[in-house]
Design brief:
binds iron/sulfur cluster
Length: 370
């Protein structure tokens, strides 16, 4: 198969969901004891039956993470470059139908924000924009990368999906990682939540990781927005996608995150609530299923929750984040994409990591030496 969509189309959402919900204790135990785990095992690990196995899952997840990654947590921070967006997404503060002031940072403003981020100690920055091709296009990204590359050892981007050729052009400018979240793998619900703009093209989005793999990206990040649809089924499709990509583009690395829907200006209520215990189950399920994948946790989650899950499988964490363009120094009052839940400073987070016997790492040595 040359494209994930061919695999995806062999599955039916309702059947997958029914299979997950019918998993038994025996299925969970088999998954926990397997030497090599399959997507079928992943179904068992995210099933309601696995809720009773949270403690052994947490222990196994911690063990695997330490063996593969050591006791370190990478620190990163988002830099919002623009809140302009031509799409309507029902869950986002930057949505076109949200009548708010828009701004895109100029080169000088990018450098001002970057200086504030460097001041906090960061060496890994995540560039974020909405999707506004008239202003935030490949040339704009080239310029931003050119400006930032001398100051950061790792640059990630979470922007609109692009063509393979665009990714090929951006990589030499210093693009290391691209995050592209499917939001939901439920095709009908995807249409409902993306009624207008380029993002309404489900197939173009789901094919993005394939284009990134072919372009030779160093790392890509996958995930769904938890709250839009049944999280167990959406997570299964994420795991299926990850599994396919790792086999097909084996030179690239992969990361996962699990954003839960957060309040924002004009907000959408989650269709499906996910409890903290369920999110712990999901983090452990991914780690037990895939020993290599990096797992990232953002400031969307609360202070208490983040303190408790650091040891369970997390490999990177953000702190001190602003989700508005210019949020660090240029225009702190501009509209944020969503509300931050954990607003502790990077030093405070680094201290919490240290208290748990782990080390907060600011430089991505893997990338520096690459
Ligand atoms: S989620 Fe992205 S594409 Fe959708 S409105 Fe927000 S910024 Fe735009």
């Amino acid at each position: 198969m040359n494209n994930f969509i061919e695999i995806f189309e062999q599955y039916n959402w309702d059947e997958v969901k029914a299979r997950i919900y019918s998993k038994t204790n025996e299925d969970v135990e088999r998954a926990l004891n397997a030497s090599k785990r399959t997507v079928e095992d992943f179904m068992a690990l995210v099933s309601p039956a696995a809720a009773a196995y949270l403690e052994p899952m947490a222990q196994l997840s911690q063990q695997i993470t330490q063996k593969r990654f050591g006791k370190v947590v990478q620190m990163y921070i988002p830099l919002y470059l623009s809140n302009e967006c031509n799409n309507i997404c029902t869950y986002c503060g930057f949505s076109l139908d949200n009548k708010v002031k828009r701004r895109t940072l100029t080169p000088m403003e990018i450098m001002q924000e970057a200086a504030a981020i460097k001041e906090m100690g960061y060496d890994h920055v995540l560039l974020v924009t909405g999707e506004a091709n008239q202003t935030v296009h490949v040339d704009y990204f080239k310029k931003a990368l050119e400006l930032l590359k001398p100051h950061f050892s790792h640059i990630s981007m979470e922007v609109q999906p692009m063509d393979e050729e665009d990714y090929r052009e951006l990589i030499p400018y210093g693009l290391n990682t691209v995050l592209v979240y499917q939001e939901t793998y439920h095709k009908d619900d995807y249409r409902k939540h993306h009624p207008k703009g380029k993002k309404s093209n489900f197939n173009y989005r789901i094919e993005t990781p394939d284009r990134l793999g072919r372009a030779g990206i160093h790392k890509m990040g996958l995930g769904v927005l938890i709250g839009l649809e049944d999280w167990r089924t959406d997570s299964f499709f994420t795991a299926l996608h990850l599994n396919y990509l790792e086999k097909t583009y084996w030179k690239s690395k992969y990361s996962l995150s699990f954003p839960r829907l957060r309040p924002f200006s004009g907000g959408l209520e989650p269709k499906v609530e996910m409890s903290d215990r369920e999110l712990v189950q999901l983090i452990c399920a991914y780690r037990i299923f895939d020993e290599e994948v990096e797992i990232s946790l953002s400031t969307r989650e609360s202070e208490k929750f983040r303190n408790n899950v650091i040891k369970l499988g997390i490999t990177s964490i953000s702190a001190g984040s602003k989700t508005n363009p210019g949020g660090y120094v240029v225009e702190p009052e501009s509209l944020e994409q969503f509300e931050i839940s954990d607003d502790r400073s990077p030093e405070q987070i680094a201290e919490v990591i240290k208290q748990q016997g782990y080390e907060a790492v600011w430089k991505d040595w893997d990338r520096v030496l690459y």
